[in-house]
Predict the 3D structure of the following.
Amino acid sequence: MSELSCHISATAVRKSFGQGAGRTEVLRGVDLQANEQEILMLLGPSGCGKTTLISIIAGTLSADEGEIIVFDHQFHTMSKSEITKFRAHNIGFIFQQFNLIPTVTCEENVCVPLMIQGKSMSKALPAAREMLDRVGLAEHRKKRPNQLSGGQQQRVAIARALVHRPRLIICDEPTAALDAENGLRVMDLFRELVREPGRCAIVVTHDHRILHHADRIATMNDGKIVECVPTTDFDFDHHQ
């Protein structure tokens, strides 16, 4: 992927939580880049800072120090409202917790990103239904989240994150609740979207079943990136 341009850049990013004696430094000067048309997977033990890092890259959390550049937009120079507007049009975030709205149907949940962009429900619904079909949930579109299994709710959350065809897909354990077949379906969908010019995906995972879908794999530990290599150079045996 070296011939492709770098679309996402985190440079010397630091983040702490708490104050005084209770202060914990979660990110300790992280450097990470993601390139056009690639899936970059991020591995590391629980508590090493992965979710904090992708939240900062997505603009849902601010860094204490360092720079985040997403498609030539420098987050440290933008207001919160500017970042929110940019995120609505360019970023799809798949959370570990599904964060579905319990009082509306699956298709209405999937419509949310399009409605945030200003589209009417009548225009958003066809796109939502198409995306639900692509994650294998067409027959469940009228159900509410509490009528679905955990894996089905995960796929609704994935459909919601992808319905507006974001340029950057950020995922926190997207296949954790999925069986092998549906995990493969989701990764194939990621691959299809990311192969369009000007797009990329960053995926946090502990699921070794999907690692071969990555173009590069970054390993994180103790608040830093310790390795970032092409998947062909990754030592799978060492990370089992």
User: Anything to note?
Assistant: The longest strand covers residues 6-17. The chain has one domain: 37-62+79-233. Residues 180-194 form the longest helix (15 residues).
